[in-house]
Amino acid sequence: MRKTILTILLVSILVIVGCENQNEQKKIATKPVNTSAYENFTFEAKPEIFEVNVEYNGQKERISEPQLPRKVTNLKKRISE
Fold first, then answer.
1. Which of 15, 31, 53, 67 has the least C-beta neighbours within 10 A?
2. pTM summary value
3. Where are the alpha helices (DSSP H) in the chain?
4. Do 48 and 70 meet the contact criterion of CB atoms below 8 Å apart?
């Protein structure tokens, strides 16, 4: 009889604690992210060799090293504002 009561009490506590943790995760996930620091940059990508260059504050940096050339099909470039 004691074991049954102890088991029911333990399961009840675990369920209550689990529900409280789930509510805290929702609060963390809804915090806004500030991305304004990364708005003023340009990039250049060469899909044939997967080379990516980024220019920020007048400095141009290579993000990825060029690889062996590959065949690229159905490439559509667009300018987003």
1. 31
2. 0.45
3. 2-29
4. yes
Cα distance between residue 5 and residue 8, in whole Å? 5
The CA-atom distances, in angstroms, between 25 and each of 13, 29, 31, 45, 63 are: 19, 6, 11, 37, 34
Tokens for 70, please give them: 């590959």
Tracing tokens 């029911």 back to the chain, one arrives at 8
Q: 19-28, long-range: CB within 8 Å, 24+ apart, which pairs? A: none
Residue of 57, 62, 25, 26 whose CA lies nearest to 46: 62
Number of neighbours of residue 7 by Cβ within 10 angstroms: 10
